[in-house]
Amino acid sequence: MKKTYFIADAHLGSWAIKDTREKEKHLVRFLDSIKDNAAALYMLGDMFDFWYEYRYTIPRGYTRFLGKLSELTDSGVEVHFLTGNHDQWMMYNYLREECGITIHREKLMPITIGGKQFCLAHGDGLDPKDRKYLMLRAIFHNKVCQRMFSTLHPRWAMNFGYSWARHSRLKHEGREGIVLSEEQDNTLAFARQYAQDNPKTDYFIIGHRHIDQHNDLPNGGQFIVLGDWISKYTYAEFDGDHLNINHFK
Ligand SMILES: [Mn+2]
Questions:
Q1: DSSP 3-state of 108
Q2: CA-CA distance, 199 to 221, in Å (whole number)?
Q3: pLDDT (tens digit, 9 = 90+) per residue, 7-54?
Q4: CB-based burial of residue 81 (10 Å sphere; 0-12 exposed, 13-18 middle, 19+ buried)?
Q5: Which residues, in sequence order, are bridge partners of residue 159?
Q6: Superfamily of domain 3-247
Q7: What is each CA distance from 28 to 12, 25, 31, 132, 135, in whole angstroms?
Q8: How far does the centroid of ligand 1 lie from the alpha carbon of residue 206, in Å?
Q9: CA 74 → CA 81, 101, 190, distances in Å?
Q10: First to last CA, the chain
Q11: Is the pLDDT of residue 141 over 90?
């Protein structure tokens, strides 16, 4: 049986990451390695460090990545993109129209894959206690704010975006890779509550936090945080029965 793959957080194009071209090539090698046995690929957000698209223009770069994704969809692999907090501005469906990618702007809860129930999300905004972030997120997702931002010339808008993304990357660098205690982990608490309310949940998968984390849910399901494609090269592979976490060498 063909497999389903899950990856997240490549942050391609980041001003704060060295050798992003090498990392893009590594990601492309991975995509190439799965293209023959993949039924579907789910990218759980922040594949780009900053993506902002205009009606007639998109950011420069990423040609190898976008080309490989197009090759996958051309050959019949389903490719899904759940937008993250760094690349939610896919307003004009470029990736859908040009690369055949299905874009999801909201979490998928639940979605059935191979008879199992999955919950898929980027992972930001799941903590109801984080009011400050939820407000910022609402502004980012607001249509009026988006339209105002698009009236800025890309010379300034893109520069602002890349700087913001770099700033956010550097700010989080020290904190990433740290597994929170179960009491502090509000996203895990959310997943546990969700699994209790929806006991058929088999897998609750997120990205965003750049750590490899795995917890059991109270209903027997599993909670998984998908590392990253900056230093861990983490992917989850689901064969219809089991889900395995691997690191692409
Ligand atoms: Mn993120």
A1: strand
A2: 8
A3: 999 999 999 999 999 999 999 999 999 999 999 999 999 999 999 999
A4: buried
A5: none
A6: Metallo-dependent phosphatases (3.60.21.10)
A7: 12, 5, 5, 36, 35
A8: 10
A9: 16, 10, 37
A10: 24
A11: no
CA 130 – ligand 1 centroid, Å: 15
- Tokens 């300034």, residue? 156
Centre of ligand 1 from the C-alpha of residue 134, in Å: 13
Locate the domains of the chain by residue range. Answer: 3-247
The predicted pLDDT at position 121 comes to: 97
> What is the model's pLDDT at position 176?
65
Cα 166 to middle of ligand 1, angstroms: 12
Longest dimension (CA), the chain: 51
Q: How many residues does the chain have?
A: 249
| Ligand 1 centre distance from Cα of residue 1 (Å) | 31
Judge contact between 245 and 234, C-beta under 8 A: yes
Structure tokens at 123: 């992972």
pTM: 0.94
- Closest to 225 measured CA to CA, from 4, 5, 6, 3: 6
Alpha carbon distance 74, 156 (integer Å): 35
Please report the DSSP string for 157-203 in residue order: HHHHHHHHHHHHHHHHHTTTTPPPPTTT-HHHHHHHHHHHHSTT--E
84, 208 contact by CB (below 8 A): yes
Mean per-residue pLDDT of the chain:
93
How far does residue 207's CA lie from ligand 1's centre (Å)? 7
Gap from CA of 202 to ligand 1 centroid (Å): 23
